[in-house]
Amino acid sequence: MPQSAPDRASRVHVLIVDDSPSDVRLIREAMRDSSILSEIHVVADGIEALAYLRQAGPYAGQARPQLILLDLNMPRKDGREVLREIKADSDLRKIPVVILSSSGAPEDIARSYDAHANCYIRKPLDFDEFRGLVRQIETFWFTAAELPSE
Description:
By secondary structure, the protein is α/β, with parallel strands linked by helices. The chain has one domain (12-143): Response regulator (Rossmann fold). 38% of the residues lie in helices and 17% in strands. The protein is built from five helices and five strands. Helix 4 (106-114) links the parallel strand 4 and strand 5 (119-122). Helix 2 (46-53) packs parallel to helix 3.
């Protein structure tokens, strides 16, 4: 079965890179309530994200994510740097990266697309809107979009 239409028995692996516990909780809740079974992995900064993606240290043996939800403003290494490194790495560049940020600054949006983000979405302030948005992301990327195989 194509990766774009997972069956009910398959798990979709999502990596959330965000230092906001409340945003991570909202994303987890929205994905938990959806019809698509998601295995969610969370890291709180860019250094951890790259270690996870490269299966280094404590992340050895972790599943490769089929989607990355990446915040821009994080400690240690921000999402802009992480995005550039992901898209420069021939082993990682095919993983779709959705920027999910509170920033609506035109320069953040432009720079993200210049760095080959697959999508840029501004985080809504309203709880129900945030949850609905996460469900739309999940539905689009795992039922409508055709994703490359590993």
